[in-house]
Amino acid sequence: MRIKKLEDIMESLGLEASLVAYEWNVFYFTRVPRPGGSYLLLVKGWTPKLLVPALDFWRVSSFVKNEEIEVLPYSTYEIPGIEAKPITQNLASWIEGQLKSAEVRRIGIDLSHVTSLAIKVKEKVSGIAQVTDVSGEISKLRMVKDDEEISLMREAVRITEGALRKTLLDLKPGLREYEIAAMLEGSMRFMGADGYAFETIVASGPNGAFPHALPTSKEVMEGEEIVIDMGARFGGYCADMTRTVVLGKGDKEIRNNIEALNEAVNEATDAVAPGISVSEIDSIARKVLARHGLDKYFIHSLGHGVGVEVHEPPRVAQGVNTVLEPGNVITIEPGVYINGKYGARIENMVLVTKSGHDVLNSLPNLV
Question: Residue ranges per domain, the chain?
């Protein structure tokens, strides 16, 4: 668990308590799988308390097998058979009571991701304690991955690539987009994924021009490009990869554009290193596409951070001044989208190291 890191934030800000209410921040600090509806309460000098829905009490308790943290169930009614008596009063009021009993005067709450409990607690304690938004400090922590996190993401990438390799062997004209998506997702599960980082994108022909396309009943045709954006989740950590596949010979224009994207990916990746701003990386990719007359068709930012969520800071885009540091994991994903005709995108995950960078993907950009 990473409770100590949250305690360090509290110490640096002079806080006596913290409430972590955002699901993925709870996961980050506790590593409890799927902690939806769970909240982490730290009061200085007390054992950390993880408040969980009563129906999750046994599952979470079996995961938390030490005394570092106290698991407390909550429910709106009494539940027989649960060893610990559930908190049945209003949860925000219960937390308020805990803070009052500890005479807390300064509390941190992660408020950047709005949750009803965080807002209710903020309202209830504002009269007795100063509330500090600690979401920025938590975000800074999550941006820098440790060795364990990197290892989990490498495995997520390995599963993702393996699933695509397997599916490519069976790819043929006449398959529907949703059928291909099902093949990819089934393969990821069979290879050990504990879920998906996001809903798989399979978009062919004109549908490829939609950056956030959804798989449809459209059949893929000979010569069409197919944008495949997919990612396994392993150990709670995400992969995010895109490849653009052409069935058969394909149109020369499409193939040239995919080659240009490959060039943009490679040049932008080569520049990734500690001390480089993310906006500079974005600019490099855009200059490459401009040389090919394609920059006007690149309609989104170059990439984003990846971790326990598929989209995390830093955003790799124009106007963002974040400077890369070792432990950051970002995507490099330039795309070309010509509405009504086709689209193409290539995406890799890149780790910033002390001496430069390491591409987590091994699957060639051009498949």
Answer: 3-140, 147-359
CATH topology of domain 3-140: Creatine Amidinohydrolase; Chain A, domain 1 (3.40.350)
The pLDDT tens digits of the residues spanning 305-357 come to 999 999 999 999 999 999 999 999 999 999 999 999 999 999 999 999 999 99
**Would the pLDDT of 82 be above 90?**
no
Rg of the chain over CA atoms, in angstroms?
Answer: 23
* Percent of the chain's residues with pLDDT above 70: 100
Residue 65 has pLDDT above 80, yes or no: no
**Exposure b/e, 1-18, CB count within 10 A at least 16 = b:** bebeebbebbeeeebbbb
9 and 48 Cβ atoms separated by less than 8 Å = no
- Which amino acid, 236? G
Model confidence at 79: pLDDT above 90:
no
Virtual torsion, Cα 11, 13, 19, 24, nearest 10 deg: -90
Q: For domain 147-359, is the CATH number 3.90.230.10?
A: yes
Q: How many CB atoms lie within 10 A of CB 237?
A: 27
Q: Would you state the structure tokens that stand for residue 184, as one six-digit string?
A: 């990819």
**Contacts for 218 with CB less than 8 Å, ≥ 6 apart:** 176, 177, 204, 205, 207
Confidence of residue 84 (pLDDT cuts 50, 70, 90): confident
**How crowded is residue 122: how many other Cβ atoms within 10 Å of its Cβ?**
18
Can you name the residues that pair with 356 across neighbouring β-strands?
none
Mutual orientation of helices 3-13 and 23-30 as an angle, nearest 10°? 110
Is the CA virtual torsion 20, 23, 25, 27 positive or negative?
positive
